[in-house]
Design brief:
alpha/beta; five-stranded mixed beta sheet; binds 5'-O-[(R)-(carboxyoxy)(hydroxy)phosphoryl]adenosine; binds zinc ion
């Protein structure tokens, strides 16, 4: 079955055609990032305006690239939660209109769950497992028995992990989105130069990133930092964040007595994070699977893939489907 996936939860407009939840026939993603850059963060009104202007071309282009037609699509899967309300509304309204006009079934898909599914786009994965999702809007640990039984284990109490990368990059005037800039700067930095650490949380599987961001802010405040100092701050910050992600993910595996861990979301594109997870996994004899690099950031292939899985297992949505920001 060919599934058309639609993803518009944040600043991307993405459409993909995926066969049987596995084979990506096409995936087209357009980002409005360059229009947000000067504000050093996403402006929701700009994001939804751009999505409104591009959604039908992006969907047409995904269909054209896939070498199947709209008539061959068996299901339309769309991100309906969580995300920016205006952005979600564009995708959901478009998917509903397509579903009605083509007479094809419709299914709303949870954005975080689709980030978990993105690891399945790379290889065959067995249930159950622990999943860590680290993105610009979320940092969450889940225990996944299957995609209809996802148990939240912990989440951030304040800033999301990617948001902390973005804010630290803003403090250091490195550009937006911050993650790739910090990763690049950290490569030549000294991880031991600054003693940054992530705050403890009462519930051991929760996260907190606002304290470390503030610590960086105080270190940088009223100073004209050299390039080398910025490199050291980036390396020390990144190392502490990776350390806490590793500690809590492996703790979750031990609590849930599983040896399988999946990692997805934009921050999972970080190479240093990948290396450190792999090396700790060897020590702890845990099997770690990352989402393929190209599908870490928001994309519609993961939405189509998860849509297929849920549809096969009985999930359905009606034309009363609505966007839910939380
Ligand atoms: O999953 P995503 O595309 O969007 C959300 O659902 O939020 O994640 C975007 C986030 C941004 O905060 C960005 O700075 C971060 O992922 N990111 C990275 C890297 N690439 C993207 N963070 C650290 N290292 C990277 N290489
Ligand atoms: Zn995302």
């Amino acid at each position: 079955m060919f599934v058309l996936g639609i993803e518009t939860s944040c600043d991307e407009t993405s459409a993909a055609v995926v066969r049987d939840g596995k084979v990506i026939c096409s995936c087209k993603t357009v980002s409005s990032l360059k229009f947000h850059k000067k504000y050093k963060g996403i402006v929701p009104e700009i994001a939804s305006r751009m999505q409104l202007e591009t959604i039908s071309q992006v969907a047409d282009s995904a269909i054209k690239d896939s070498s199947v037609g709209y008539k061959d699509i068996g299901l339309i899967g769309v991100t309906d939660r969580p995300g920016l309300l205006g952005s979600l509304l564009v995708g959901v309204s478009f998917a509903k209109a397509l579903s009605f006009s083509l007479g094809k079934p419709l299914l709303g898909v949870n954005h975080l769950h689709s980030h978990i599914f993105s690891a399945f786009l790379g290889k065959k994965i067995k249930f159950p497992f622990v999943a860590l999702i680290v993105s610009g809007g979320h940092t969450s640990l889940f225990y996944v028995r299957d995609f209809s039984k996802i148990e939240p284990l912990g989440q951030t109490q304040d800033d999301a992990c990617g948001e902390a990368f973005d804010k630290v990059a803003k403090i250091l005037s490195l550009g937006y989105p911050g993650g790739p800039h910090i990763e690049r700067m950290a490569r030549k930095g000294n991880v031991k130069k600054y003693k940054f650490s992530c705050s403890n949380t009462i519930q051991p599987l929760n996260f907190s990133f606002s304290g470390i961001k503030t610590a960086v802010m105080y270190t940088a405040r009223n100073k004209s930092l050299s390039f080398k100092e910025k490199q050291d701050i980036c390396a020390s910050f990144q190392e502490s964040v990776i350390k806490v992600l590793i500690k809590k993910s492996f703790l979750a595996c031990s609590i849930k007595k599983t040896n399988d861990l999946i990692i997805g979301g934009g921050v999972a594109a970080n190479k240093r994070l990948r290396e450190e997870f792999y090396s700790e996994a060897k020590v702890q004899r845990i099997s770690v699977n990352f989402a393929p690099l190209a599908y870490c950031i928001d994309n519609a292939a993961m939405v189509a893939g998860l849509g297929y899985w849920l549809y096969k297992n009985g999930s359905r949505s009606g034309l009363n489907l609505s966007a839910r920001p939380d």
